Structure formats: C-alpha cells, structure tokens
Amino acid sequence: MAESYTGFLRTKGHDIVDEDGKKFYPIGFGVGGAIYPEGYMWQMFGGPVNEQKTCEGPSYMYAKLVELAGEEAAKNFWDAYRANWCSETDIASFAEWGANHIRLPLTYKTFMTPEGEWIEEGFAEIQKFVDWCKKYGLYVILDLHAAPGGQNPWHFCDALGEALLWTQPEQYWPLTITVWKEIARRYKDEPFVLGYDLLNEPLLPGGHGINELWEIQELITKAIREIDQNHIVFIEGDVYATIFRNVSVFDSNMAFSYHLYRYNGPNVTKADIQPYLDLRNRTNCPLWNGETGDHHAGWWNNDLELHKQFNIGIAMWTHKKIVTSNQPYVVELAAGFDKVIAFETGRGSKIDSKLAEDAMMRQAEAMKSENCLFQPLFLKGFGWIEKKN
Fold first, then answer.
1. Domain assignment present for 58
2. pLDDT digits 0-9 by tens, 348-379
3. What is the 3-state secondary structure (H, E, C) of 256-284?
4. How many angstroms separate the CA atoms of 358 and 203, rounded?
C-alpha cells in the first residue's frame, strides 16, 4: 500500500508535497490501453492511414472489427477487453507492488460526441478508475492522450494522419479547452486526482512554432483555474514531450513532464536527463517522467534508480501488452486472433464472422492479468521483490 498523504498534492520548488508539506515522490504506471487501445499493444502493425507509424488508432481498429464480425460482436469484445485489460485487481496489484499513482490516458471521443455533447458512460469509465485508486490509496493523473483533432498525427492520439489541433486551431483549440473545463468541473474537489496532464506527446507540424504549444497549454490552464485551483497541471514539450525550448512558468502549481525511451538502446545516464534538470533549475518547477520503459527489466530498473537519485517522478509505460515482454504482464496471443490482426492491418483476408468472434473473445479472456505471464523483475525498483522476500 502506498504511503498516506493528506489533502491535495501541489508543487513546491522542485518537489510535489501534500497539504502538510510532506514530500511526495511519484512512482507508478501509465495504464496504456485501460480505456482505449493502441494498435502496437495488440500486435496490430500495419494499416493504410498511419503507414509511417505502422499501426492504427482505436477508431480504425473498432470499425474494422465491426466490418469483420458485426456490431454486436465488436461491442462485446470491446467491453470485455476494457473489463479485463486493467481491472480493480490490477489497481490493487499496483498498490501492493509499491506504486503510488497511475497515469490514466483519455481520449475525448469516449466522453464527447462529434456534436459536442457529453457522454456520461465515458465519464463513468474514468470515475471507475478514480474510485478504485481511492480504495487502494493511489493517486490518478488524468492524461489527455487524444485531444480533439489530434495533437500529433499518429495512432496513439487516434488521429488520421494529420494533427488538426495545430492545422485547424480555430475549431480544435476551443474544443480542447472545453474538454478540460468539464474535467476540472467534475474533479476540482477530488484529492485523489493528483493533477492534469494537458496534452500527451505533442508534435508541431512544419511551419508551426513551439510558442503555439505553450500558448494553448497556458489557455487551458487559465480555463481550468476559473474552476479548479487545487490540481497540478503537467506541461509536456514538443516532439513527443522532449523539447521545452522557450517555455516559461505561467502558473503557480505546474510541473513539467517529459518522456524518455531508448528502444533497444543503452542505459539512461545523467547526460540524457541533463536538459530536464536544467529546465527544473531554471524554472524551479518539479519534473515528472510521465512515460518511460518499453525495454527489458534491467534497463527499466536502471532508469528508475537514476530518476530516484535526481528526485524526478516516474511512470512506467505500460503494465501489459500482447506478446511483447517489456513490462510486468505479457498477454498470450490467443488462437485465431492472428487472423483478426491480419484482416485489421490489411495483410489477410476476411474470415468467417463466427470464427472471428470466438477468437476475439478468447483474446479478451487472455487479457486478464491472472492469465498473463507475470515478470516480477520489473518490480525490483518498486521494492516489491525485497518486501516479498
């Protein structure tokens, strides 16, 4: 179980503290796939829209499942996947392992219609995770992973090859601000919400300057502050949360969030995080590495220890994937689901709808953590292995 803290967490110099001034060090998981999937987590590599990134977003994936197996089967599978991918059991496990927060990725499409109406079922899904985290003593960072229009052109913000947030700001900036105002309205009084991660991994297209990124995040923050003066706002940089050129402090309760990956590369060193240490020293704001990992256990534990050494909060991305082994749980590829993947990604022909439905439901069952391969070496840095021994 995580340590006990009181009241709303806030920033104070380089630290995050509670209302009594007690320091809080964020260590946890970004629960990728908890509410909507990313194709690469399901081995769905391919597709005609995001060819450069070689996989597609959830809207495309769901539409292809409907085409393959029908609306009812697709919905049944989607509901089963969301129930099984990250359940109350998973949240309880995070707390037992020594985590103290989750980063919950959101897509506006789950709680806002194309006409701008709120979808209460989508907000209920968010609330479910908040309630579970409260029960087990974890904080939640609400992460707008997929903003209206898309803050980058790729599958992980459910875009269709163009970052419309930047190319059509007159339409999508007001929508994004509206989304955050509604989130703030609903969670302004919830102390187990640690804060708001405003825009996941932005990527400004050619011809757009980095000041646009700071401008919209400042506008979002001002809109939030009209409603909510309690929660930390986390500001991400350009080029997938790596570049913070020309940024300044525009709120008294803000932190900077960067992402750091080294796919198949060497261990992270102080030189890799030095630009962010310089940012912290210049702004006197806390740092939080909101996404890192996707590498073997030794790399992750080195990464975690380095961040602890320099007082930088950290969240592993993510706790579970199909086949891929760079996280605590590995989901088995269920019999027949390879044919579903092949159709989804344009590499295989359409199969019988009943065979597809059966394979989909087998895969959903395989997504339960109790049915996964568990890799406890990823938990060494959380202190869980030592505690168990």
1. no
2. 999 999 999 999 999 999 999 999 999 999 99
3. EEEEECCCCCCCCCHHHHHHHHHHHHHHC
4. 39
Sign of CA dihedral 60, 61, 67, 70: negative
What is the DSSP track for 157-180?
A: GT-SSS-HHHHSHHHHHHHHHHHH
pLDDT band at 251 (very low <50, low <70, confident <90, very high): very high
User: Roughly what angle, to the nearest 10 degrees, separates helices 270-283 and 297-309?
Assistant: 30
The pLDDT assigned to 52 comes to: 66
Tokens, residue 8:
């709303």
Task: State the amino acid at position 66 in one-letter form.
Answer: V
CA dist 378 and 292 (Å) reads 13
- CA dist 346 and 349 (Å) reads 8
Per-residue pLDDT at 387: 53
Residue 161 lies in a domain: yes
The DSSP-derived string for 75-128 is HHHHHHHHHHHS-HHHHHHHHHHT--EEEEEEEGGGTB-TTS-B-HHHHHHHHH
Cα separation, 186 vs 124, in Å, equals 11
What is the pTM (predicted TM-score) of this model?
Answer: 0.96
Q: How many domains does the chain have?
A: 1
For 179-220, what is each residue's pLDDT tens digit?
A: 999 999 999 999 999 999 999 999 999 999 999 999 999 999
The answer to whether position 324 is within a domain reads yes
Distance (Å) of CA 79 to CA 54, 259, 329, 365: 25, 30, 20, 11
Domain containing 90: what range? 10-34+86-332+372-388
pLDDT tens digits for range 57-103: 899 999 999 999 999 999 999 999 999 999 999 999 999 999 999 99
Q: Is 308 helix (H, G, I), strand (E, B) or coil?
A: helix
Domain assignment present for residue 231? The answer is yes
Residues 6 or more apart from 100 whose CB is under 8 A from it? 2, 3, 24, 25, 26, 27, 28, 137, 138, 139
CATH number at residue 126: 3.20.20.80
Q: Position 333: which residue type?
A: L
